[in-house]
Structures are given as C-alpha cells and as structure tokens.
Write a structure and sequence with these properties.
Length: 84
C-alpha cells in the first residue's frame, strides 16, 4: 500500500518504528507482521539488516481505509435492518 499522490510535509511523513505503529493501530507485533505478510497492512521499509519501519502516511491511510470500510458496513447493516 503506497500513499499515492499523498503530499505531506516531510516532518509529518516520517518513518515510524514498530512501537509507534503498535500504539497508533492498537495491533500487536504478531498481528502487524501477519497482516503485512498477508498483504492487508502496509509493507515495511527496510532501514538496515535487522530494522524496519513504516511510512506514517501509509499507516494513516490504512487506518482511514478501515474507518471507511466500517462506515460502509454499518450503512449496509442499517439498510438490511430497515428492509427486514
């Protein structure tokens, strides 16, 4: 998941390390790693032989996509409940 066309000042689109990604998303280390391996989480950026991080803009975009998906699901449930 790349932040296509997203323009963010350089100081705001910085690389986040795992503890901050965990704090922002509320996900555990294992869940983050499993989701990016499954393709359902932004790919990490290799910082060195044994260190990775994530672009802040991509994490925020991912969180927004979850929010939009949740809102769409809620709307679908409301429509279904209104017809049943």
């Amino acid at each position: 998941m790349k932040a296509k066309g997203a323009r963010m000042p350089a100081q705001e689109n910085r690389i986040l390390r795992l503890p901050e990604v965990m704090r922002l998303t509320g996900l555990s280390k294992a869940t983050i790693h499993r989701r990016y391996r499954d393709g359902t989480f932004p790919e990490p950026v290799r910082l060195g032989p044994q260190s990775i991080g994530w672009w802040r803009a991509e994490i925020l975009e991912w969180l927004e996509s979850l929010q939009r998906a949740g809102a769409a699901l809620d709307e679908a449930r409301k429509r279904k409940a209104g017809h049943g």
